[in-house]
């Protein structure tokens, strides 16, 4: 009898919080999930993918038996978020949109079945992508058709609310009109105001309110190249844009609550406080940044908080709304990874005037998914990002060329297909 049921856990990255469902019948699988690409969800999780959740089949996570580390954030008048106060893992939605009823949804990125799935059994099935319109350029939607596996249904696409807005065809690249995402062919060096300049890096609650000084960074890299200096590994030597890269690792999945995280990379000297916070550059090395956050120096850092996930790694997040913000490690003292979902770029969620995305090729840390219910997601991402690149006529990125052909390919720049 026991084998006819399955139990689920939702656990944060630091393991301080674990929630367990009662045994649920295997006949109730797969559990239906929705992926929301709206601006609010992207700015809440830091993920380019927004949020992804299923109805939680367990007891309410707010019950008194839960750990006091569980923190609550008011996302909207009807929705609250529960997250870990130590590692900031985004765990649950509390939904009060139906008067008199409270339901809980769990983020798919923190979900683990406690016993193996049977042959052919699926834990989660994504039925929809919603709020594509918010992304302007499609964000991550074009490489998430295979969420349900190669033989599974493609999730339906909605420009706004699921079932209540215009529907887009999942067979097509979205948006169809290339003019709707002009960012790829342009960069900030030759952009016109008001699109020339800084890109806000801002979480949902606005407590983390920083600026990526992208135009200044591109000029700086161009000047350094002219002086014969070697550019950092994450800078496109032709466009001076910053590398954008997808990440399949367990750590970023759990901390954000969403599979397939997306990062871009920047030197700390190219990140500043917002004008509202007095401007000025962030501490320019990761040791000073860590000290400033730990000692809560200066109002400009706002709600930026720190979780040391290992001895040499610092994961920065918003202590109020839980958004993933930066990843820093001691071996790269002058730079951080920036959560791509926090960028507020006018050209769209992928911020393509600023970021040179690496499409196709091997997914970073995709092997973390091996042997888990998410195993198909790595191959899906590799195939679909390549299909997207070819459909849009984008060349292989500089980073992929370097990886595939070795460092000698660099002088050719990113134009090599
Ligand atoms: Zn935690
Ligand atoms: Zn949303
Ligand atoms: Zn926040």
From TrEMBL:
**Location of the CENP-V/GFA domain:** 8-127
Segments crossing the lipid bilayer: none
A GO molecular function term, named singly, is: carbon-sulfur lyase activity
Q: What is this protein called?
A: CENP-V/GFA domain-containing protein
Tell me the Gene3D superfamilies matching this sequence. 2.170.150.70, glutathione-dependent formaldehyde- activating enzyme (gfa)
Keywords of this entry: Lyase, Metal-binding, Zinc
Family recorded in the similarity comment: Belongs to the Gfa family.
PANTHER family per the record?
CENP-V_GFA DOMAIN-CONTAINING PROTEIN-RELATED, GFA DOMAIN-CONTAINING PROTEIN
For this protein, the record's InterPro entries field holds: CENP-V/GFA (IPR006913), Mss4-like_sf (IPR011057)
* Superkingdom in the source lineage: Eukaryota
